Amino acid sequence: MSAGSVRIGDRFRDPLVRVDRFADDVLVRCPACDGCAVVLGNLGGPEHAPKTGSGALGVRRRLRCGACGSSKDEFTSVSLTGGPVDPFFRLPLWLQADCRGHVLWAYNVRHLDLLESYVAARLRERRAVPGSMSMLARLPKWLKSAKNRDEVLRAVNRMRASLPRS
Question: Cα torsion for 111, 103, 163, 8, to the nearest 10°?
Answer without folding.
Answer: 60
